[in-house]
Amino acid sequence: MKTPVRRGVLLLMAAILLAAFCVQSAAAGRMVRVGVYQNEPKVFVDENGQAAGLFIELLEKIAAEEGWALEYVPCEWEACLQALEAGQIDLMPDVAYSAERDQRFDFHQTPVLESWSRVYAAPRSGIAALRDLDGKRVAVLSGSIQQSVFEQLMQGFGYQVTLVPADSLEEAFELAASGQADAAIANHLFGDYFHARYGLVRTTIDFNPTQLFYATAEGRNADLLEGIDRRLNAWIPTPGSPYYTTLGHWTSVGLRERVPPYLFWVIGIISVLLTAAVIGLILLGRRTVSGSRRLFQTRQALHQSERRYETLARISPVGIFRTDAAGATTYVNPAWCAISGLPPEKALGDGWMEAVHPEDLPRLRQEWQDTAQRGAPAFSDYRFLRPDGSLAWVMGQAVPEVDADGRLLGYVGTITDITERKQAEDSIRLYAAELEALNALGQSVNRSVALEEVVANAIETLLKVTQTEVAFLFLREGERLILAGSGPPEAARRFGEIPEHKVGECMCGLAARDGHPMYTRDIFSDPRCTWEECKKARYRSFAALPLTVGGEVIGVAGLACSQERDFEPQAEFLETLAAQAASGIRNAQLYTEIQRYAAELEARVAERTRDLNLALEKAQAADRIKSAFLATMSHELRTPLNSIIGFTGVLLQGLAGPLNAEQSKQLNMVSDSAQHLLALINDVLDISKIEAGQLEVRRDRFDLRTAIENVLRMVTPLAQKKGLTLNAVISSGVGPLVSDQRRVEQILINLLNNAVKFTERGEVRLECETRPGWVELRVRDTGIGIRPQDMDKLFHPFQQLETGLARHHEGTGLGLAICQHLASLLGGGIRAESEPGKGSLFTVTLPLEREG
User: For residues 124 and 137, what is the distance between their CA atoms, to the nearest angstrom?
Assistant: First the structure.
């Protein structure tokens, strides 16, 4: 006959086998590939090559509920993220959320943990604040959130830090431990777990609070994230759930559980022992001898359980306490005493309240009394004031302890030292307040560009954000410091008449000379302070902050308090304030200088304007003289020239009698010279009118084809005289044109005459074709061409190019300049292309404005 114990064992084994079979069967449903990197205790590969850690154990419990099979893929951090994006793995644990990562990955809704980053360094490194990292080498996990956030943080303060990238957190700690880096950054869970192994210590530099999740590639495996959220949402509100047992396994206390899990374990043991005792009593009634033996065993097990509980409470890093039903303390463990600073005997009853900070005691006493009356769980954050004067922030929590009938026996609770967390929160608040103060100062000194207003605004803001009694600003002029302003008025009057300072005298002068801030708690005992006005005004603590811009000290800001005050802890903030004020003051000084220069420049401009007006009057007078001269010359030169040309024509026609060959030759030379001179005079008059803006153009409708034929008839004799071929290629679309016919013909005559003039043999061709809205006139020749270096001055007036040929036709160099001006006045343009020895091509483009 089987005993009840044997039957229980067999049933237990069957249940285990059945559970294993169920898990194995469920695992066949969904295979999930999980990336694993080294970040103990959250996720890592142990010495046996097995995936382990808080995130792994929690995921395995979720997988068991969801019916997933897990396949672990070890990889470095960056490689894991790349594999996740590439679809080589399905799920990545321990991923901190950021907006940038949200573009690449998908996250579930409920975070697994909250974490923050911390700096770790060698014990005697001297690194305690952000400014101590200036110029240092800091090891950081490559591609991590810590890297980008820390880099931005240091840049924001203007510190220069060399980041040493590491492929894992272990490598980062090894770099710091071996001296290859001055410090290392890690999440606080890993760092607090391992820093002692590498001989490092925790610093007080905490930053970047963040939430940790499981992540999938964007748009993939949404069912995994839904399953994770489903389990977390069910487990997190439930004490003793798989979530809290996992946290309890990997941390000293569950980070998000209000009631510590080991208390449930202890209560569970006691419940098991009580059940065993009841079973023993039942068996005792049946079998006296057997019952006695079992009763003895039960008592022995109970004794062992009590000793185990006492050992756990004694070695626990968390403070543990018990109370009676009235709320009076009956037990505290050593960790509780270490945190509070009280010995056990003083903690009993209500004695523990003596160690509570006076500001927190009324609230905590009332909360505890209310809790004891209701028999409800209690949760509260408060401070202990230790005998040595130090403060300890704790998170206290307690739950009722009841008997089998539900009667309240007392409370079991814990206190957890959260001083570092509170200090981190205070640091964040202080940092935010300092940023707000810097922003306020920046706005105040930039509201105006008047130096007096900027100084007044700076003093007002300095008083507000530094909480000092008086502030004043000196501006440097050579080797002197001149008072620019002080405030508030009633405090500043206590100084009496503030004298000038010499650079190098008193604390302000020393700060100006050396470019370094000066701080003192007591000006009466500090030999650097030699300014009697401060001592007479009964100010005690003093700060002298150099106002530096670009390495140049432009002044000094002074802050004073009548009570002793240590400015050193705020040195970094105060120096940043001074730099901000210096920037605004320098801008105002520059504005003042610009205003002075502007006034000087305005005076010079006025003087120069007078000179220019005088020169303009002279130029206008000269222009009037030139215009009168040109008008006179137009009449006086053209009249005799026309007479010469007319009478020469009469003689050449034989109307005055027959001429011999020599006489005809001489008269032709006279006629040609007169025609040439008349053309030169016309060109000079045209360019003068163009420069004066007096040349008018007409806009008439005429037949372009007819105009081209007129031009060709005029130029053909000159071409035939040189033995050149003059051709015209006119497209069929050429017809009416709305423009100034005379000026169009003038442009073509100038271009054709030039082409004939500089072509010794070959052909001169006039081409004409239309394109939408425009007409193009091209004059092409096979002449000597134009050198590249002469192309830029081709259209300049009075410029004659050196052709290397004897000049048969002298000119003024005005023809092409007039062509360019006329083309522009007609709404078009002209361009030239040429190659020495191969001829030239001039293209005139004019608006068509064709009717209909």
Answer: 16
Strand 183-187 with 137-141, pairing: parallel
Cα–Cα distance for residue pair 54/43, rounded to 1 Å = 6
b (16+ CB within 10 A) / e for 103-116: eebbbbeebbbebb
Contact (Cβ atoms closer than 8 angstroms) between residue 541 and residue 523: yes
Give CA–CA dist 121/202, Å, rounded: 7
CA distances from 709 to 381, 730, 749, 848 (A): 107, 10, 11, 18
3-state helix, strand, coil in the chain (%, to 5): 50, 25, 25
Element spanning 509, H or E: helix 506-514
584 burial type by CB count under 10 A (0-12 exposed, 13-18 middle, 19+ buried): buried
Spatial distance between the Cα atoms of 476 and 482, rounded to a whole number of angstroms: 6
Nearest-angstrom CA–CA distance, 205 and 469: 31
Q: Are 465 and 440 in contact (CB under 8 A)?
A: yes
Two tokens, residue 420: 């570092």
Q: Which residue has 């509070």 as its token pair? A: 340
Of 783, 727, 785, nearest in space to 760 by CA:
783
Residue tagged 């081709």 (tokens): 794
DSSP codes joined into one string, 253-283: S-SS-SS-HHHHHHHHHHHHHHHHHHHHHHH
Q: Which CATH architecture has domain 317-417?
A: 2-Layer Sandwich (3.30)
Query: For residues 552 and 538, is the Cβ–Cβ distance under 8 A?
Result: no
| Closest listed residue to residue 192, CA positions, set 119, 130, 138 | 119
Report the predicted TM-score, pTM, of the whole model to 2 decimal places.
0.33
Give the span between the Cα atoms of 528 and 8, in whole angstroms: 86
Which CATH entry fits the domain spanning 446-591: 3.30.450.40, 2.40.10.340, 3.30.70.2730, 3.20.20.80? 3.30.450.40
Alpha-carbon span 817 to 844, nearest angstrom: 13
CB 332 within 8 A of CB 319: yes
Q: Is the per-residue pLDDT at 685 higher than 70?
A: yes
Nearest 10 degrees: CA dihedral of 666, 671, 672, 676?
Answer: 140
Most confident of 333-337, 406-410, 633-637, 765-769: 765-769
Please name which of 414, 679, 443 lies closest in space to residue 583, comparing C-alpha atoms: 443
Q: Report angle CA 292, 295, 299 to the nearest 5 degrees.
A: 140
Q: Which of 241, 295, 288 has its CA nearest to residue 62?
A: 241
Q: Return the higher-pLDDT residue of 636 and 232.
A: 232
Strands, E assignment, 375-460: 378-385, 391-402, 408-417
pLDDT tens digits, 566-606: 888 878 888 887 887 887 888 877 877 888 888 888 899 99
| H/E segment holding residue 508 | helix 506-514
Q: How many helices (H) and strands (E) does the chain have?
A: 24, 29
* Banded pLDDT at 426 (limits 50, 70, 90): confident
Query: What single DSSP character describes residue 332?
Result: E
Closest CA to 115 of 206, 49, 34: 206
Which residues are bridge partners to 519 per DSSP? 543
Q: Which two tokens stand for residue 295?
A: 């009763």
Please state at what angle helix 741-757 crosses helix 704-721, rounded to 10 degrees: 30
End-to-end CA distance of the chain: 124
Question: Which CATH code, of 3.40.50.720, 3.90.550.10, 3.30.565.10, 3.90.320.10, is assigned to 696-847?
Answer: 3.30.565.10
Q: Detail the DSSP E strand segments found in 355-405.
A: 378-385, 391-402
Beta bridge partners of 737: 702
Question: What angle do the packed helices 261-286 and 288-315 form, to 10 degrees?
Answer: 170
Q: CA angle 429-432-433, nearest 5°?
A: 85
815-825 vs 741-757: helix crossing angle, rounded to 10:
150
